[in-house]
Each structure stands twice: as structure tokens, then as C-alpha cells.
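Give me C-alpha cells for this 171-residue protein.
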Amino acid sequence: MAPLGFVFLANRGNLTKAKLYETIRGRLGNEPGCSDVRTRPSRARPRTVEASVRPEAFLSQAYAVDEATLSVRFSHPRSVDYEYYVIEWSEPDRDVGVGWHQDEDHPDLGQCHFQIDHAGTTVDRRSASFLDEHPLEVFETRLDQLRTVLPDVRWTDGEPRIPEDGLPTPE
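Here you go.
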């Protein structure tokens, strides 16, 4: 049994949740455009890693807003043999969120889905590739995909959308 205070992520060696979040925190701290990288609620009990992002520096190209937030959360429920996660980009100025959710919320879409939220409503939700890999590999893959998806977001009738073929698949 794991020592109190540590959660071992199944099939991922001895990676503890605290170590995972500390590694993601360090990785985002070195990412262009990312600053104020923090764990919520605290470093002692991490549940989410958040970073303030300057989109132009992060994407290496012009972007419509100057500020965004990147949030990363992993969990390992006992009911499945893989990690759940949410990796989400949020833009408070446009009230939009873009990200991947590998969880139980929409079984009709499979084990993983991509969604865009705007003004408190989900405006696009579709099946996404399931990644049963080490959490750090999942994080890197989704970070790369985010750089591809964000420039493809188009505003139609006041809502953000990506083309039907706009969701990249992992290499």
C-alpha cells in the first residue's frame, strides 16, 4: 500500500501524483509565454497545475488575446486502468475554454473528447484520440496539439469553432 499522502498512478512505475504535478509545473515554467506556474490548492496537496500564458509567445505567432490560462489535471479512478485528465486553455477576455477531457462524462464520445466552451455553454464537443500513455507523454502530446488547434479556432455567429478535420491526431 502507498504511504499516506501519495497516490501511485497505476501502470506508470513509481510516479506519484505529487511528483507528476511538480514535473509538469517545472516543464510549464520553462515553456515560452508561461509564467506564474502554480499548483492548486497547494504544492503539498496538488490537484491542478495552472499557468498564466502570453499566447503570442506560447504559439510563436500573433493571437487575438494577450492573456490565457493553461490548466492540467490528472487523476486515476479505481474503476478504470488508465488516467483521467483535463488539459484546458482558458481565455477570460473572450470567455472561452478549449481542451481535452479523458474522463467518464461523455461515454457516447469514447474515452476521450475535445470540447470548446463559450459563455458558460459547450459549443463544440467531439470524440478525440484516446491516449493510454505515461501522463507526461500525454501532457506533451496535448500541448503540441493545442498549438495546432488554437490558430484554427474561427468565430462564427459569435461562437468559437474548429473545422471538422481540425482536430490533430497524435503522431
